[in-house]
Amino acid sequence: VIAVGDFDPARIETLIKQRFGGIAAKAGARPRPVVEVPDNRAPLIAIATDREATGSSVDVIFKIPRQATTTVADYRRDLIEGLYLGMLNNRFAEISRNPDAPFLSAGASRGNFFAQSKDAFSMAATVKDGGIERGAEALLTEARRVDQFGFLESELARQKQAVLRAYERAWAERDKTVSGAFVEEYIGNFVNGEAIPGIDYEYQLTQQLMPTVSLQDVNQLARGWITDENRVIIAEAPLKDGVKVPTEADLLAVFDRAAKTTIVAWAETLSEAPLLGTVPAPGRIVSTRTMPSVGITEWRLSNGARVLVKPTDFKADEVLLNAYSQGGTSLASNADYMSAALASQIVGLGGLGSFNRTDLGKKLTGKAASVSASIGETSEGLTGRASPKDMETMFQLIHLQFTAPRLDSAAFRAFRNQVMPQLENRSSSPEMVFGDTVQVTLAQRSVRARPITPAVFNEVDIAKSYAFFRDRFADAGDFTFVFVGNVSPDSLKPLVERYLATLPTKGRKETWKPVSPPLPKGVIQKTVRKGTEQKATTIMAFTGPLVYTPENRFILRALTDVFQIKLNETLREQLGGTYSPSVGVIPSRIPNPEYMIRVDFQSSPENVEALTRSVLSLVDSIKARGPSAGDVEKVREQLIRTRETDIKTNAYWVGNIAGRDQSGEDIAGLLEPYDRLIRGLTPAQIQAAARLYFDTKNYARFVLLPETIVP
User: Fold this and answer.
1) How far apart are the C-alpha atoms of 64 and 118, rounded to whole Å?
2) What is the pLDDT of residue 559?
3) How far apart (Å, rounded) are the C-alpha atoms in residues 373 and 351?
């Protein structure tokens, strides 16, 4: 029994002894055998096809002896293996970004092979339909390239830097480690004998050992992984006309071709130019306001932008960013919607400034800083994170997102090649067809809610995507930037003045346009018959208008929490009809003030109607009689416990500050006013909410059934 947390050890020890001490050891308990995985001289090959599969993949596996990590020498070996795998995976990622890449994505790993007695070195790839042989050959070729020529010194230097930085960050957060992480370490030690020296020791040891690792060490260590024996090949593909599925002979021939292919050494060039070519002269902070109750400082900048800063001590090595501005894809025409909707993703493929995406990743090695742009229906913005020591890098990335995004047509072609196989096969998946039905129905067949088919994707014009992105980030004057984490206003001020106050501004006063219809009214019933698996999925969505206030959002959450308790008790425990009933609520302010309470459950096909009636009966019960005081107390305790952890995370604050600010609500409401809502929660409130929000004259039910129901 493992216990980790904020408690009195003596008290917990007593409780454990009371609860478990009286349980007698089972007489004649079976021993836990160590199953030996046998070696194999001839390759083991498995080829699987499925009509519902949405893609093709291949795994090339080499079984190798199990190795334990109990000494410093073992630890050094593990470091070397990690460097090897990291560099090989970096090469796979770089190859996948080529328009004519032999695979869509690929990765290498070493780990346990089904039993404690054997490990495995595995290389796996997702490929285009019909491309299994080419993908497998590419995996083997890249492994041979490393075997024959080794890695580059520059690759090793970057990978060492990345590993050391990761350990440094983990060590910086050593006092903030969540209890679950300790639990997993202790379980690994007890069950598998894994060493648990702790981050202090590992950090110091890694710093000592890393300089002793040479390129020769890395290149030599893994050469014994790829052998002529103990090979396993697993290929998976959709079963459909026109898709070639390789035979065992085809897959065996891959090894022969890869062994005979002429290979040249890997080469790379990386610019030594700075991330930001010209560092701008600082702008100004023109006004300052503080919000003492929530510890926030607000600045207005000379270009019109706003900045909100909340210092915290929740994590030592984390600062989070959330930036936003109104507009989004609502400002694009229907004809240009797809180009606008994918604009941030397409532009993100190109890199920033003078660096393409691959080189940008290399340039940022060892830097704990990242920034990504997004464009939603009613707004555009940035999210990011950084270590306090890498804050300037994050600010330079913000500056480049506005001033120097890149369009890379070759990267887009590679991206298109990656997504098209999935789009072509998505209609084979019952879950995707079902999800499309739900989406289209609730969006009242809006052109902007169409499922993304190959034809819809082909509407994208990357020139229009780039132009739309540039327009959405052409005016920083209407952006708000929120920073939360281990940072002070004094340390942030010079970065804000240099990199944010100097962003371009046009003085625009924009808002979003209403382009999406509200949720449908009335009772809607939709049944989708797809697939062969004898199971059913049911979604019930209760919808309606919503006065978007903190109080209404809170009571909606409390209502669904109570309803979850009743679902578990009735559908799962009493009726045994489903293992996983769930209920959640989605309140919306824009583009339409409305809510959706969604109930999901899976069951056997013959139980759908009975379980639906049970859900509606629970709705009627909570409306007529309200919840019990005991259930409300359970929810209150749950809300208190969740809140205790939430308010000590940067993610909670950066998200809720942004949400309240965009809604025009008092940010201070996140503190005592919210606690009052929890303390004041009553059965009568939840009953009133149920009567208002569980409108049985305004809901949709969607059911996914197999094409044929087997009695």
Assistant:
1) 6
2) 98
3) 12
CA atoms of 596 and 612, how far apart (whole Å): 17
What CA–CA distance (Å, rounded) separates 432 from 451?
A: 9
Task: Report the largest interatomic distance among the alpha carbons of the chain, rounded to a whole angstrom.
Answer: 80
**246 contacts 133 by C-beta, under 8 angstroms:** yes
Q: Under the phi-then-psi rule, with left for phi > 0, alpha for psi from -120 to 50, and beta for the rest, what region is 445?
A: left
Give SS3 for 184.
Answer: helix
Contact 677, 635 (CB under 8 A): no
Within 8 A by CB and 6+ apart from 653, the residues are 310, 312, 484, 647, 670
pLDDT digits (tens, 9 = 90+) for 170-210: 999 999 888 999 999 999 999 888 899 999 999 999 999 99
Enter the DSSP assignment of 37: P
pTM of the model: 0.94
Cβ partners under 8 Å of residue 340, min gap 6: 329, 331, 332, 375, 464, 465, 468
**Strands, E, within 589-692: which ranges?**
594-603
Residues 167-195 as b or e (16 or more Cβ within 10 Å = b): bbbbbbeeeeeeeeebeebeeeeeeeeeb
DSSP, res 615: H
Could you identify the residue written with the tokens 């003078």?
354
Q: Tell me how crowded residue 672 is: count the other CB atoms within 10 A of its CB.
A: 10
256-279: string of b/e by CB count within 10 Å (b at 16+)?
eebeeeeeeebeeeeeeeebbeee
Q: Can the peptide bond before residue 591 be classed as cis, meaning omega within 30 degrees of 0?
A: yes
Q: Provide the H-helix boundaries in 193-246.
A: 199-209, 215-221
